[in-house]
């Protein structure tokens, strides 16, 4: 237990990790014994929640004000990511029904019409998957991105008659942060797979369409992948979505277990004997991108004699500044791939500064396989 002094008050700091959760640090005021601050890490950022305005409610002392701020690795606080919750009243011992917290049936929001499976042709450009779809009956062009969420550009949202609300902060591979709004549509359709009441992030993709040479309206990601079994046949250029009850893995497939890091699928792997946590990212066109904390921890710039930094890709937030290098053997499950062209990040902010991940496995490798997500 550590001790810190802020504003002449002594605080005892206790690190706590519950089963299946990330560690948090609890700050207890030595004078009042109240929990006044909760600090946790979110990727490369630090999220701090301050608890104030304590009042007694039915014999309990409870905070009526919570203020949350988020600080990146460079020490910058983005006000768009700050949140203030002020409560008017708190009622204790309210009856809570178990059914209020049941997960709704998948078919209530997602389904394949007239069948249990649908197959959609796609274009493969720069190792990116592009499909045609519909939002509220209007044609759209989507990037298929397991590393992202449902997303529309402001131009596409306006064309579709959707109004973005709010002003949040978003980031990607670059260090820049951009405005993010939220828009809700009636439905999104890909082939005959339909997702009702989808929520879209509205983000300006800036130079990405020009950099990739493809006009696109946005992307589909976690929301679709979470609700369907997915097959990506890179050789045949077809994407198949199947309702979960009918999904069967392809014959001869190599099963690889995965976890979700929030919304992205993560698998365990090895790179030249080093254990890795790897994000499976169809939205990345390169083969293997190593995160800055993983690169620094193992001195990989020197180990692989990495070339000078250059712009080697483009994504949400702008250019990806990376150092190219030839790596050795990557092993995922029972699959081994030798002599990959890898990219090393050394930036302290952006998505590639996440210490919880070692790297991204992108289309440069995935295109060598038929990839299924159950």
Structural class: mainly beta
* Intertermini distance: 42 Å
Class of the largest domain, according to the CATH hierarchy? Mainly Beta
**How much beta, percentage-wise?**
over 45%
Bin the helical content: under 10%
Provide mean pLDDT, rounded: 88
The major sheet is characterized as:
11 strands, mixed
Which architecture of the largest domain does the CATH hierarchy give at level 2? Answer: Beta Barrel
C-alpha Rg (nearest Å): 23 Å
CATH topology of the largest domain: Cathepsin D, subunit A, domain 1
Q: Tell me the domain tally.
A: 3
What is the β-strand count? 32
Q: Which term fits the overall shape?
A: globular
Q: Low-confidence spans: pLDDT under 50, at least 5 residues? A: none
Brief digest:
With 374 residues, this protein is mainly beta.
How does this model look, in words?
The chain has helices at residues 154-159, 208-212, 222-227, 292-297, 300-303, 363-366, and strands at 2-6, 9-16, 24-29, 35-42, 45-57, 60-71, 83-86, 110-112, 117-121, 123-125, 128-135, 138-144, 151-152, 165-171, 177-184, 187-190, 193-196, 199-202, 218-220, 229-233, 238-242, 259-261, 264-271, 274-280, 288-290, 310-315, 318-326, 329-332, 335-338, 341-344, 359-361, 370-373. By secondary structure, the protein is mostly beta strands. It folds into 3 domains: 2-90; 106-232, Acid Proteases (Cathepsin D, subunit A, domain 1, Beta Barrel); 259-373, Cathepsin D, subunit A, domain 1. The chain is globular, with a radius of gyration of 23 Å. The mean pLDDT is 88. It is 8% helix and 48% strand.
